[in-house]
Each structure stands twice: as C-alpha cells, then as structure tokens.
Write a structure and sequence with these properties.
12 helices; 340 residues; 6-stranded mixed beta sheet; Diaminopimelate Epimerase, Chain A, domain 1; 12 strands; 6-stranded parallel beta sheet; 2 domains
Length: 340
Amino acid sequence: MQMTNFDALKELLSTPKKIAILPHKNPDGDAIGSTLAMYHYLRKHQHTCNIVAPNDFPKFLKWLPSAKEIVIADYQPKRAEAIIHQADIIFILDFNTVTRIDDLGNWVERSKAPKVLIDHHREPDQFDFMYSDIEMPATCQMVYNFIEAMGDVDLIDDVIAPCIYTGMMTDTGGFRFRNTSSSTHRIVADLIDRGVEVDKVTSYVNDSQSEARLKLLSLTLNNLTFLPEYRTAFMFLKREDLLENGFQKGDTEGFVNYGLSVENYIFSVIFIEDTVHNFIKISLRSKGDFDVNELSRKYFNGGGHMNAAGGRSDVPMEETIQFFKSILPEYQESLLKVEI
C-alpha cells in the first residue's frame, strides 16, 4: 500500500479522535461499504466516528451493519455540518474531489482538520494523506489494505467483512470486470473466513427487487437500441417513466450492464432523466480496453474508470441521444478492434 505520510497518519490515529467519514453523492455499494467498514474499524480504536453522506443511498444497502446510523445531509443538514465542523480528521472515501459532495464540499474545504483520501478514481485533488490507486477495482479493497497496513487485519470481523465484501462485489460487477485481480480473490477468501455469508450478501444486493424496479427494467429493455456498426447498445428512461412507476433511489442500479450481455457488444450506455432537476444522468460501461472514462470526460462532463464511468447532459433526452450517436463515428475504429 502506497499512502503519503502514512507513518504520520498512524501516529495521528494512535489517540482517540472525532472523525467524519464521507462517501460521494448518490453513494453506491463501494461508497457505503467502504465508509461503514472504516467506521467500524476506527471505532475499535475508540475513535468517535460519524458517516455523513450528501444524500440517501439505495434500499438494497440498508441491511449493512450500522447503515441506519449514516447521517444524510439532505435530511439533517445542520447535524451534518456540525459533524464536519467538529471533526479532528476527515476521511474521504470512494471519491477524489470535493465537487462530488455538493454543499458538504464547502464545509470540508473550510475545515482545518487533516483530510485522508482513500480512492481509486483518476486525477485526484490533493489532500493531507493520500492512498490513491487507479488500478484498484474497489475502494473497499483499499480499505482492507489500509487496515492490513495498520497491522490490524485480525480486527476484521463478521461486521466489517460484509461491508468490505459488498463494496468489492458491487464495484467489480460480481467480480466480472477486468480489474478484478488475484489479490481481489485472495481478500475475498479471507473475508469469507472472517464471516461473510456470500449467499446472504448476494441475496440482499441482487434479489431484494421491488415491483417498481422490475417495471422500470421492463421499460428500459423495451427502449434498448442496438448499433451493431459500433458494437454499442444504449437505453433510456424519462422522468415520467420513473415517477409513474414509483421510482426509489437504487432502482435502476445495474441496468446499463444489460447492453454488455449481448454477444459481441462492448459498449453500453443508459440515459436517465432526473426526477427533479433538468439534467440527464449518464452511465457508461465497456469491455476490453475501450476507455469510457476518456469519452465521458471529453463529452459529458464526467469520468470514472476505463470500463465504468458516469456523466451528465443538460439538454433534453432526444438531443442528448442524437449527440451521443453523432460522436460514435469518432470511436468506431477503437470499438471494432476491441478483443474480448
């Protein structure tokens, strides 16, 4: 593990502190899993810890140990601000720029507390302590490495282990993405030895589907469009689709991957209209060495990883889709030569 100023951080953590732990906006399994794992680990060293999330997270993650203790800034802004203001240390997990956390970012920037980054996304901001590794498949794997580097791997118990496992499982697409390494599987084996019940975690994450989610999946697949000349599939959901079918946060998680399940297709995109604001959330996934991070940064004010990225569009759905189709010829050669 390569962390800047690690010995200084270890010394800082040698006595009890007030610690704020932050995931990114619209937190996913890796964000919630890593923050909860760190929360439980630090509490074992008598630190006073609070997790502050910018907004709510999917229902299928609410079962994780102490998930109900997470402070949602959208619902409790004064408490969230107070936690950050009073913190002696701020942990930043699964994101690398304060622009990813809305108003919380302003509070973090005003805080004089040292900031600790643990994250695997490209082009991080600078913080006091940094463990940044874009080769890592999940921040949860980095949290495991951090605990191990602290000499505390034996503190990973049947509370911490499911949190780490959930983040690793979800951010690797069920251990299917290309950055899933032998180290990933060795850590998974250790987590199972430490109490992870794989069948239960998988059931909580994948099988707790609402009627609304299945209805939305049906609509999404009905909108699925194939562009074989680009080995690309895209789909969309409009605001009325979401509202008429009782959409809740997390209901569309994983829909974008259906495009990659088609033989010989290596690029899949979903466009989802926000239910409140006038923008479109874009999720991009790929196989092989087709870099959706680069495409998203260039055209959709986003970013992420080579095979998984996000972005946004501020024009209506029809214009967004037409624009997306208009840029595909630029990538046709790259898309056609990808080997899978």
